[in-house]
Amino acid sequence: MVGKIVAQMISCIIFVYMVVVGITFILHITITERVNDICYDVADTVGTEGVFSSEVYNYLCENLSRYGEYTVTVMLKDKGDAVTCYLYGEDEILDVPLEVGDRVIIAASSNDQSLFEKITGADSRISGVKIAVIG
After folding, report:
1. Rg of the chain over CA atoms, in angstroms?
2. Residues 35, 128 contacting (CB under 8 angstroms)
3. How far apart are CA 77 and CA 88, in angstroms?
4. Is 97 exposed, middle or buried (0-12, 13-18, 19+ CB in 10 A)?
């Protein structure tokens, strides 16, 4: 009798745990997709306008802050020749007109663990990387 009660309690606990893991996984994937969408929107804007403006950078940082604390890295890979290419940080490329063929690399990575990572112990930080080619 006691064994049946304990088995039912364990079954209920495992069922609740699986439901919570499933819900947090869906939230984790949804946030990952949204971060990628935000980075894509910024890359598309920079690629079509030819300028990485401070308004676009502020849009990127503000929208990412809605989903947690993120480290944003923006680099410019100068088109140059095949041997030499230069990487510039976000301080040097904001509000500077870019040349056709330059590539802007936009990377955002989460500083915090999501609830899914905390529950399961997995290490799958939310991040997004997009490259805008100036056209």
Report:
1. 21
2. yes
3. 7
4. exposed
Query: How many Cβ atoms are within 10 Å of 20's Cβ, its own excluded?
Result: 13
- Cβ within 8 Å of residue 70, ≥6 positions away: 35, 61, 64, 108, 109, 110, 111
pTM of the entire structure? Answer: 0.83
What's the gap between Cα 39 and its chain centre?
Answer: 7
pLDDT given at position 60: 93
Using CA atoms, how far apart are residues 86 and 93, in angstroms rounded to an integer? 12
* Secondary-structure percent of the chain, ordered helix, strand, coil, rounded to 5: 50, 20, 25
d(CA 10, CA 12): 5
Q: By three-state DSSP, how is residue 72 classified?
A: strand
